[in-house]
Design brief:
alpha/beta, Rossmann fold, 2 domains, 6 helices, 6 strands, 46% helix, 19% strand, globular
């Protein structure tokens, strides 16, 4: 037998062996990779516990927050002002604060947000602006570096230019705004508002459900 043939046969043997080896172990490595990706998705928010915060004047945002709690299975806390805002006086005070960008006087918020993330804030719009109580709360230094989602409710229209302005404003405060959810609630019943919350979450999920490993 020629020496060249003797050399080629071991090479052919090892080539076939490597191909078979790769074919055997490839599914194993793929499964490990898929498992790692699944674990990453599952632990995306394990660094902190999600929290829902809401401010409401008419009760509509309490409905939104309640349905979010049902869908996301996390705690809910209310943002409260020091003074009562019902009636015409509350309307005047709220309008004044939003027209002149004045901060609202809030009741002390004692909850420790250190281990909380993401934070979902439900707020009405007043005169094309986020309500002064929610806007004031968003200045809380404890929110810096947190992932924030806003559920913004209104009856008519919120211009995209106003939304972009607010995104820039929050970014300047060190807020990681991950998403804004527009809730047009004018004339809607409680059940219709809840259905709209579910619809919004289906369109843009906040907490991804980890995929099953292959």
């Amino acid at each position: 037998m020629k020496r060249g043939n003797i050399i080629r046969k071991p090479r052919l043997f090892w080539a076939v062996f490597i191909v078979l080896l790769l074919g055997f172990y490839a599914p194993f490595f793929y499964q490990r990779l898929a498992g790692a990706q699944t674990a990453q998705a599952a632990t995306e928010y394990q660094q902190g516990k999600p929290l829902i915060l809401y401010y409401t004047l008419t009760g509509k945002n309490k409905i939104i927050a309640g349905e979010l709690k049902n869908q996301l299975a996390c705690d809910v806390e209310e943002i409260k002002t020091v003074s009562e805002r019902s009636g015409i006086w509350g309307f005047i005070v709220s309008g004044y604060e939003n027209i002149f960008d004045k901060d609202a006087e809030l009741q002390p918020f004692t909850m420790d947000l250190k281990d909380t993330n993401p934070i979902i804030i439900c707020t009405p719009l007043w005169m094309q602006k986020v309500s002064s109580p929610a806007r004031t709360f968003l200045k809380n230094p404890a929110l810096k570096g947190k992932d924030i989602y806003l559920f913004v409710s209104f009856n008519g229209h919120w211009g995209e230019d106003k939304e972009e302005e607010y995104k820039k404003e929050l970014a300047a405060q060190g807020i990681h705004l991950k998403g804004i959810y527009r809730m047009v609630i004018g004339g809607k019943t409680e059940d219709e508002i809840k259905k709209e919350v579910v619809k919004q979450l289906e369109k843009k999920p906040i907490i991804q459900k980890p995929a099953k490993a292959l």
